[in-house]
Design brief:
This protein has about 750 residues and is of the alpha+beta class. The protein is globular. It contains nine helices and 36 strands. Strand 10 and strand 11 form a beta hairpin. Strands 23, 24, 25, 26, 29, 30, 31, 32, 33, 34, 35 and 36 form a twelve-stranded mixed β-sheet that branches. A six-stranded antiparallel β-sheet has the order 6-7-8-13-10-11. It has a four-stranded antiparallel β-sheet with strand order 15-16-20-18, with no helix packed on it. Helix 6 runs antiparallel to helix 7.
């Protein structure tokens, strides 16, 4: 592998060279390795580049597969469930030894002994061929790179340096247990294709069916970035009862800060407590359980195995290694009882018709139980009449989809808080709260001038950095032509969507009292501005102001960064802009970076997949770079996934959108942006609208110097935390899954 963490710009590993230099060295390294393999009959894997994002940027930015033959593995750090194992180009590689391997070479996210089993099991399921999970120094006292630990001791002859005694730390037991129970066993499947808990099944070694291992884990979300796991919003019974109390308090709360705190509490959850999976284990049971350090856990006197469902992983194995015993274990798991969690996972989808005309609330309830459950359902949408069924029955692990008529007066803020309770008796209580919207793209032709009068009667789409903003602002707050002062100190934005025969229109009003003069015009960017010139100067030091010239060697290209690059997305580094994104194509139809929706043996979208096929940065250009605007094409079905670094090889079709229109103005503490993008730029989106289909859409607001996360899909139940929604990959994003319908002219 070439270089550790060779990031663009400043780098802790000291790379700090441009992309062409990396590609040149990588190519020479790979060609030399291939030549040596042929000459000496050995096999050496070639790979890079310490993240899937960096690998796409460095090796595939021009849309070609030139480097695919040189990519035997992708080395990644700290990506967790954001695994690149789903990328079609890599997975379907037929060169050399086949698909690109995914090797975790530095992800120390399981640095306590109770996390290790779950992290390794989940990473293996996510397509990792190697999962590190822990820093070696927390296991034994050795240094990296196979160096033996030394220590100084005092003797009669003085200080002597010698090999230190080998010491094992508490992590050693967990690592050893995982190596013994999982080790090189092949991941087979996640046993339950719907719902919790997570039951990871590994095949036996040497084709021995009875030698398999099962890892049971309750709270996968606790091990990785919050919100990234499937079923992550499911709470335990303690949290469900606490949500009922918060809902009651919210009904009477009048203070905006108090309301915001209650709403945030309703949309987050704490760790699981007292939740368990209970499976039958009679006295003659041929299987047993071990904790994360490998110690056996005895069955209860009642003849059951009780697996705690929290952040810890527990091992289940056949005692005698016989196939029949392992199959009996799997059957017992299929019949096990889930205790202490909400009985169902709730997904609520936005409305697609105006409520005054009658709309449909679409709910999905997914059972976490291996037994049929039935319960009383109560659904309320603030301000609307709801015709929901009173009883719902779910078969084992079933997802029930409900279409519930709702009707009532429209709210000018287009925000309709949903409250849902499902009481399944002994199976538990589920409580869900979520602000819903009517998602319509309004027919209209807009003059792109920063005057929002053209958006009268269009439905607003709001984002707030704090929960209070969707509840405490006056209804007039959201109207595009009414002035108002929002309460609270969280970030705040309202957007409107429109269309006609020629353009898609977008407008947004963002709370922003710090006008940003603008950014680069990336289509005409002087890429050399980020690199050292032919002559640089350094001070002599001390009190002297004398400058000493430093000359770049003649005949050598100036490849070293002198400052970090500015990327057009607007959030690395942050400048004030807006990103808009559509998702209309299936994951496997999104161009060179297409992905599989499902990995072998896993539930659909176990790992987040590519969920944006058209993305644009609406950038205001600074006067020194020509002023005006630039609508930059960030993602497109014709483009590879890339970040548009200086000197990065270009792909056909990348750049600014021709014939787009845009303006950004600052007025009375607000930043107002309007834009028009021609349908010729987004034919797939236009075709979906013409066919009467919904399109998925989201937008993101960036502020100069940073600020609260402002994305439309933030913490929505239909979405999840995902790096593949917006660029850049390494900032927090939410999957582009909010459906919009085009309102008829």
């Amino acid at each position: 592998m070439l270089w550790n963490e060779p990031w663009e710009g400043s780098s802790i590993s000291g790379w700090q060279a441009d992309m062409p230099r990396y590609r040149d060295i990588y190519r020479m390294m790979a060609e030399a390795v291939h030549e040596a393999e042929a000459q000496f009959g050995v096999q050496v894997l070639v790979g890079g580049c310490d993240s899937s994002s960096n690998t796409w940027d460095k090796l595939f930015p021009d849309g070609s597969d030139e480097f695919l033959k040189f990519l035997d593995f992708c080395s990644i750090h700290y990506q967790g469930l954001h695994s690149p194992a789903h990328f079609k180009m890599w997975r379907e590689r037929t060169l050399r030894e086949g698909r690109v391997l995914i090797l975790d070479t530095e992800s120390w996210v399981a640095n306590t002994d109770d996390r290790f089993a779950g992290v390794v099991a989940a990473n293996r399921a996510a397509g990792y061929d190697r999962a590190m999970a822990v820093y070696a120094g927390y296991v034994v006292n050795v240094l990296s790179h196979r160096r033996v630990h030394q220590q100084d001791v005092w003797t009669e002859q003085g200080r002597v340096r010698q090999v230190a005694p080998l010491r094992a730390y508490p992590m050693a037991a967990s690592v050893a247990a995982n190596q013994h129970f999982v080790g090189e066993r092949r991941f087979r499947e996640v046993l339950f294709d719907r719902g919790l808990p997570w039951v990871f099944v590994f095949d036996g070694l040497d084709d021995r069916p009875g030698d398999g291992t099962v890892v049971v884990l309750g709270d996968l979300d606790a091990l990785f970035q919050p919100g990234c796991a499937l079923w992550a919003s499911t709470a335990d019974q303690h949290e469900a009862r606490a949500r009922l109390t918060r809902l009651e308090d919210l009904r009477t709360a009048t203070d905006p800060a108090r309301q915001g705190k209650l709403i945030d509490g309703l949309r987050t959850r704490g760790p699981y407590r007292d939740a368990t999976l209970v499976l039958s284990a009679p006295a003659d049971a041929s299987y047993g359980m071990f904790d994360f350090t490998g110690n056996p856990v005895a069955p209860t006197p009642e003849g059951t195995i009780v697996v705690p469902l929290d952040h810890r992983g527990f091992y289940l194995r056949a005692k005698d290694g016989r196939q029949e015993s392992f199959e009996a274990l799997l059957q017992a798991l299929h019949e096990a009882r889930t205790v202490g969690l909400e009985p169902v996972h709730v997904v609520a989808r936005d409305l697609l018709h105006r409520v005054e005309d009658g709309a449909t609330l679409r709910l999905e309830l997914t059972s976490h139980h291996n037994q049929a459950i039935e319960g009383r359902l109560h659904v309320a949408v603030e301000g609307l009449k709801v015709e929901a069924p009173e009883q719902v029955r779910l078969a084992p692990r079933e997802t029930v989809r409900l279409e519930i008529p709702v009707r009532g007066p429209a709210r000018p803020d287009n925000t309709y808080p949903l409250t849902l309770r499902f009481d399944a008796g002994a199976a538990g209580l589920a409580v869900h709260y979520e602000p819903l919207h009517v998602n319509l793209i309004s027919p209209r032709s807009v003059t792109v001038d920063g005057n929002l009068d053209d958006w009268r009667d269009a439905l607003p789409q709001t984002i707030s950095g704090q929960g209070a903003a969707t509840r405490t602002l006056t209804e007039e707050a959201w109207l595009p032509f009414v002035e108002f002062e929002p309460e609270g100190d969280g970030g705040f934005a309202t957007a409107w969507l429109g269309y006609d025969d020629e353009y898609f229109y977008f407008a947004a009003r963002v709370l922003d009292d710090r006008p940003d003069p603008g950014t680069l015009r990336f289509a005409k960017m002087d890429e050399d501005m980020f690199f050292y010139p032919q002559v640089s100067y350094r001070r002599t030091g001390g009190d002297s102001d004398e400058l000493i010239p430093m000359r770049w060697p003649e005949g050598v290209r100036r490849f070293s960064y002198r400052r970090n690059p500015i990327l057009p997305a607007g959030n690395a580094p942050h400048f004030s802009n807006i990103q808009i994104a559509f998702n209309v194509l299936a994951p496997d139809r999104q161009g060179p970076s297409s992905s599989l929706a499902t990995l072998p043996g896993c539930p659909d979208r176990f790992v987040p997949v590519v969920c944006t096929d058209h993305e644009y940065a609406l950038n205001h250009v600074a006067p020194e770079y020509g002023g005006g605007f630039e609508v930059w094409r960030l993602s497109h079905p014709t483009l590879p996934r890339k970040h548009f670094y200086p000197r990065q090889p270009k792909a056909p079709g990348e750049g600014a959108v021709e014939n787009a229109r845009m303006v950004t103005v600052y007025r009375d503490g607000w930043r107002i942006t309007e834009a028009a993008i021609p349908w010729t730029e987004m034919p797939a989106v236009r075709q979906a609208i013409e066919a009467g289909k919904t399109v998925r859409f989201s937008y993101r607001v960036n502020h100069r110097g940073g600020g609260p996360l402002l994305e439309l899909a933030d913490r929505r139940s239909v979405s999840r935390s995902s790096p593949f929604a917006f660029l850049v990959d390494w900032t927090a994003h939410w999957a582009n899954e909010l459906e919009f319908a085009a309102e008829a002219p």
